[in-house]
Amino acid sequence: MMKKITRNPFILTPYVPEEYFCDRKEETALLCKHIENGRNVALFARRRLGKTGLIRHCFEQASIKSGFNTFLVDIYSARSMKDLTTLFAKEIFSQAHILGFRDKLLQGIKSIRPSIEYNELTSSFSVSIKAGEISQPEKTLEELLSLVDALPKPSVIAIDEFQTIREFKETVAESYLRSVFQRCKNITFIYTGSIGHSMNNIFKSPDKPFYNSTVMMTLGVIDRSVYCDFAKKMFASAGKKIEESLVYRCYDYFEGITWYNQLLMNEAFAQTDKGNTIREEDFDAIYNAIIAQQAFSYQDLFSRFSGKQKEVLLALAQEGKEGAQVTSQEFMSKYGIGPAGSIQTACNYLKKNNFITDIDGRKTITDLIFKDWLRQN
Length: 377
Fold this sequence. Notes:
Elements: H1 25-36, E1 41-44, H2 51-59, H3 62-67, E2 69-74, H4 81-99, H5 102-108, E3 115-119, E4 124-128, H6 137-149, E5 155-160, H7 173-181, E6 187-193, H8 196-204, E7 215-218, H9 224-237, E8 241-242, H10 244-253, H11 258-270, E9 277-278, H12 283-303, H13 307-316, H14 329-335, H15 340-352, E10 356-359, E11 362-365, H16 368-376
Parallel strand pairs: 1-6, 1-7, 2-5, 5-6, 8-9
Antiparallel strand pairs: 3-4, 10-11
Helix pairs in contact: 1-2, 4-6, 9-10, 11-12, 12-16
């Protein structure tokens, strides 16, 4: 007889089913309220706090699911208007059949000819969009938005990692997008971002196109005791137990950042047999298992950096959570690296590719587990 598998309730993917979703009751209610009242939203949060999960959770709420068409476009990988338009097109085409407007979409988009493929396994057609098929990205984007804007139900388009538009090769992308979005009468936009200074500059600077175009929301960490109660409940539902002190130690180690909480709890759950209790003394075994799982990919990643980039990362790994001013004389002398110009060049690459984060001039390693791996190797 096959052993019944107990699903690990600490989900690591962006979409989390209702029964495994931790708290965020106030944030969910507020974001739904903004959507229902047609308010554009700028949602700020540090990385891995659960912005995307919150949006998907809101989209599953009854009032939103029944009253709105919902789209989520992650533009983190975009480097141009063509990239952005391709991502918009893929998301809208993927929803078109479900929402019943695929034929209208295919007829209404004049600037591209998407590929239509037949799937023999499902006996259905699928539509695919490739960047090379988009020669007039601005025109295509306007056609897509015009069709969505004309749907019978109002729509919500969430754009994840919106600060990425600052990196586009088109210097007028910000003002162009503002002018296009504000013409939409039946679409509410949610802009999320994880780089505070960039998002602040986009939405809070009087001389910028998106100034005063949204209501602001900031996502903080889930309350420590609330998360602890959630974790204990999830363990208990599977006939397992976890010491409260272990939950708090995991929470505190990464300052309550949701994704890291979930990752540690996921591994703790996996290491606990039904009827047993996992304790605070097991923290090292849990965390070392996680680092070991990532070791190969981290080794491969590290081998791809230049010598100077490696020096900067290894030095930053020794710094505390506040990071360091890497071109200061103190930092360069402490780790025997330099000169300042080559360090800055290395940092520009590392920052552009999200390996380090810049907060008020101080650099930190973005992936906190990678930071610990570097410290150990």
